[in-house]
Write a structure and sequence with these properties.
about 375 residues, six-stranded parallel β-sheet
Length: about 375
């Protein structure tokens, strides 16, 4: 079931109702170690009561956890929202935190803070004795928080064959047939996740930018929730007809992993969700960054700082809007221009690390071994 970002507070409230039945289950099953996600902020207390060790399992990466800080820091940094001291909030979120000892440009822009405060999407690792993040030392080894953080690799999808097999069944077969006709290492895959949607103005500018770039593209386009118009109806008039020789727009579920693995795919225009980033870098695809909300912004800043992607700039003078010229220029730079060659080369290098199944298995094995060695004795 898909839940809109604006309704995530309802999901968190629903998790609160699980406290009693989960407590009863844990008392009966007596686990040695409990891994929990961010909605279960009551879990460390239960673990302590039953004598079990606990660890916060973060789907956010290490740099994001570092930015927001140790347990409780999120609430303290955003306390100005409650107190009405907005300036303190702006200072806390646009600049480098005091506890980061090295130089970094990771932070929010003003327009992103507005979206952030509306969606309340900050991770908080609560009070667990350990933390585990879906990260690896290969991406910004400086970005670990001071508390104990155990990297557990990419935890990405594994290959089940050379061409995706059943993943292409049904309507998705049209995507494979289209990709099979494209030149090797030429296509930009465009997908912006499920949590946030583009406004009609942003959709229009992105469409024109893709058209003006001259780069072949496959665009997975979702219908906006609670809208009387489909995303396809919001595209510029005649857009699909004009780009039909080199562009495909698809509005159904698409097998992202296999699109990224396809020999025709060279780049990935992504919203910077961490799972998508891992899937793209794991197969050596150059990244074009268009973050939408919350941690996606911090992921984009990290990737650009580490020369692992290039972000599409927004126009501050026009309310941080997208502009087709900047979209086209950024896409061309990443995909075909000589100035983007280093980006493309570094993406290929990361394939041997992020996509290394043996290395990622080792991360998981080391984490499990750590849990076994650090569990509490009854």
């Amino acid at each position: 079931m898909e839940i809109k970002t604006s309704n995530q507070h309802l999901l968190k409230a629903a998790f609160q109702t699980l406290r009693q039945p989960v407590t009863e289950f844990l008392l009966e099953s007596k686990p040695d170690f409990i891994l929990y996600d961010f909605p279960c902020d009551w879990m460390p207390g239960i673990a302590a009561d039953i004598g079990a060790s606990s660890a916060y399992f973060s789907t956010f990466n290490a740099s994001t956890l570092s930015f927001f800080g140790p347990p409780g820091a999120v609430r303290s940094r955003l306390s100005g929202v409650v107190d009405g001291d907005i300036q303190s909030v702006l200072k806390a979120l646009t600049g480098k935190p005091d506890w980061i000892p090295f130089e970094s440009n990771i932070g929010f822009h003003l327009y992103e803070i507005q979206r952030f405060l509306v969606n309340q999407g900050a991770p908080d690792s609560n009070e667990g004795s350990e933390a585990a993040a879906r990260s690896a030392a290969a991406i910004s080894s400086q970005s670990r928080p001071a508390s104990r953080l155990n990297p557990n690799g990419s935890i990405s999808s594994r290959s089940s064959g050379d061409d995706g097999g059943e993943a292409w069944n049904g309507a998705a077969m049209a995507i494979k047939e289209w990709l099979d006709k494209q030149s090797v290492d030429s296509v930009l895959y465009v997908a912006l996740g499920t949590e946030a949607t583009l406004s009609e103005e942003e959709l229009t500018e992105l469409a024109h930018g893709l058209e003006d770039s001259g780069v072949p593209f496959l665009w997975i386009l979702r219908d906006p929730p609670e809208s009387f118009r489909t995303a396809r109806e919001m595209l510029p008039e005649g857009f699909e007809e004009r780009v039909k020789e080199r562009g495909m727009v698809y509005t159904e579920f698409a097998p992202q992993v296999w699109i990224l693995r396809h020999r025709a795919t060279r780049g990935f225009l992504t919203h910077c969700g961490w799972s998508s980033v891992i899937e793209g870098l794991g197969v050596g695809r150059v990244l074009v960054l268009l973050p939408m909300i919350n941690d996606q912004v911090l992921v984009a800043r990290l990737l650009e700082e580490e020369k692992l992607g290039v972000e599409i700039p927004r126009r501050e003078e026009d309310g941080w809007s997208l502009a087709r010229g900047e979209v086209a220029e950024t896409v061309r730079m990443a995909m075909v221009a000589e100035e983007g060659a280093a980006l493309r080369e570094k993406a290929k290098e990361l394939k041997g690390i992020i996509g290394n199944e043996e290395l990622n298995d080792r991360y998981v094995s080391d984490f499990i071994r750590h849990l076994e060695q650090s569990r509490k004795k009854f």
